[in-house]
Design brief:
With 498 residues, the protein is an alpha/beta fold. It has 16 helices and 14 strands. Helix 1 runs parallel beside helix 2, helix 6 crosses helix 7 and helix 13 crosses helix 14. The longest helix has 17 residues. The chain starts with 5 loop residues before the first strand and ends with a helix. The chain binds 3-methyl-2-oxobutanoic acid and zinc ion (ZN). Zinc ion binds next to loops.
Length: 498
């Protein structure tokens, strides 16, 4: 058996299903190119039949990327497969990923069907997809809770029908590592033809075991790991790419190798987090900001004497360059440009000048400018074309007084002003905005986060605003947390006022 583990990245499909994480096609291409540079084998670019946006992203990613296989998801439905094949027409290497639920829960409640009929539908879908592409991957949805004997029958039938990869998802994140490993072992030992195809794992993290289950699957014979950057994905997320790559790099005695250039991990993790408005928990393995921060005196002393006393990974191996230049008010445009390019952000001279002006203003109020700050500053420039812009904001608040806010908005070139009071500065400012924008909207979620540590730091705000039964997501970042909140509120409004 080959010991090369294929890395199948589904950040742009399963990862993008997270509410509020939707990306436009340009952003998806940026991530896809970075995944290619990092060395992933397969990029799942979308579910083309689900929306014109997803269809278009698969088309454009297929054009933009050369080496990785581009994969498109379908249900076991002919129309889905037709649309996926059409979306993949520019892919140098295209794969259709079709499948159906195989657990009794799915068979009985989702499909009101029988085990025999599900096998027929699975086989028909694989044969139909084979008319378009050679490389057909089959997924047995909820395989984690599917009886092993029956799962083996399904897999044997789709292998016979021509599947090249068989994906065994733990869709609900239910399995225990030993149980999941045994499932893969059972398939290896009981499915005719299994040695001619690749077995894939696709584990969700509902019980915090996605990575453990994936590792167990691989140690029992799977050779494709389905993963996302930062472990993002529906509910508690998917197995994270960086964990799988670093586990097999650190435990090289296991003899499993990937094609991942692990030095690309840190930057790509930040890019994904920033573009998807999805903060990384500080203690996230490999990419959390505390992953390599030693605060206890004993640890610091140990690391200074010999890094390996307390660190199993050299931060440089994941692309954390301790010697990277810290940007300050004295840094020039070239340093800023370089740092943005490291994150895949290429700005024209005029845009760069605008970002640089903002950078200098921020540097006046904050000692060190970190990568998060400059990515946000560049993101701000993208917002400059929004229909509604915050012209000014003034708030008075304190203990024992009512908060008052006055707000100026520029809407499609016209200027509007309003003032209001509230039970806090954000409440007052939102009420003032509502006096200008007469739409029925309700704030559903409001999340404030400091990017790093100090009181001079940028605050990031994520908001969810409901309008006409639909949730819209807004993001703001500013050293002033009230301003960041109003920016996030206006960002959300811009999504339905466009
Ligand atoms: O979790 C799952 O089962 C999936 C399949 C569509 C592969 O995402
Ligand atoms: Zn999934």
């Amino acid at each position: 058996m080959s010991d090369r583990l294929f890395i199948f990245d589904t950040t742009l499909r399963d990862g993008e299903q997270v509410p509020g994480c939707q990306l436009n096609t340009v952003e998806k291409i940026q991530i896809a190119r970075a995944l290619e540079t990092m060395g992933v084998d397969v990029i799942e670019a979308g579910f083309p039949v689900s929306s014109p946006g997803d269809f278009n992203s698969v088309v454009e990613i297929s054009k933009a990327v050369t080496w990785p296989t581009i994969c498109a998801l379908t249900r076991a439905v002919e129309k889905d497969i037709d649309v996926a094949a059409e979306a993949l027409k520019y892919a140098k290497r295209g794969r259709i990923h079709t499948g159906i639920g195989t657990s009794d829960y799915h068979i009985k409640y989702k499909f009101n069907s029988t085990r025999e009929e599900i096998i027929e539908r699975a086989v028909a879908a694989v044969k139909y997809a084979k008319k378009y592409v050679e490389d057909v991957q089959f997924y047995a949805e909820d395989a984690g809770r599917t009886d092993n004997e029956y799962l083996a029958k399904v897999i044997e039938a789709v292998v016979k029908a021509g599947a090249t990869v068989v994906n065994i998802p733990d869709t609900t994140g239910y399995c225990l590592p030993e149980e999941f490993g045994n499932k893969i072992k059972f398939l290896k030992e009981n499915v005719k033809g299994i040695d001619n195809v690749v077995i894939a794992t696709h584990c969700h993290n509902d019980l915090g075991m996605a990575t453990a289950n994936t590792v167990s699957g691989i140690l029992n014979g799977a050779r494709q790991a389905e993963v996302t950057m930062n472990g993002i994905g529906e509910r508690a997320g998917n197995t994270s790419l960086e964990e799988i790559a670093m586990i097999f790099k650190s435990h090289h005695d296991l003899g499993i190798t990937t094609n991942i250039n692990t030095r690309c991990i840190y930057n790509l993790s930040k890019t994904v987090s920033s573009l998807m408005n999805m903060p990384i928990q500080p203690n996230k393995a490999i990419v959390g900001r505390n992953a390599f921060a030693h605060s206890s005196g004993i640890h610091q002393d140990g690391v200074l004497k010999n890094r390996e006393s307390y660190e199993i990974i050299d931060p440089k191996d994941v692309g954390i360059d301790e010697n990277s230049i810290v940007l300050t008010a004295r840094s020039g445009r070239a340093a800023l440009k370089h740092r943005l390019e490291v994150h895949g952000i290429h700005l024209e001279q005029e845009k760069l000048d605008q970002v640089y002006d903002k950078f200098l203003r921020l540097a006046d109020s904050k000692k060190d400018i970190n990568d998060d700050d400059i990515i946000i500053l560049a993101g701000h420039e993208r917002l400059a074309s929004a229909r509604i812009k915050l012209a000014y904001l003034q708030v008075t608040s304190g203990v024992g007084i009512k908060s008052v806010a006055s707000v100026g908005l520029d809407i499609a070139g016209e200027h509007f002003e309003a003032a209001a009071s509230g039970n806090g500065p954000v409440d007052a400012a939102i009420k003032a905005v509502k006096q200008i924008i007469h739409r029925k909207m309700t704030l559903q979620e409001f999340l404030i986060q400091a990017i790093t540590r100090g009181s001079d730091d940028m605050g990031k705000v994520h908001m969810q605003v409901e309008h006409n039964g639909v949730n819209y997501y807004g993001f703001g970042a500013n050293t002033d947390i009230v301003a960041a909140s109003i920016e996030a509120y206006i960002d959300a409004i811009n999504k339905f006022m466009d």
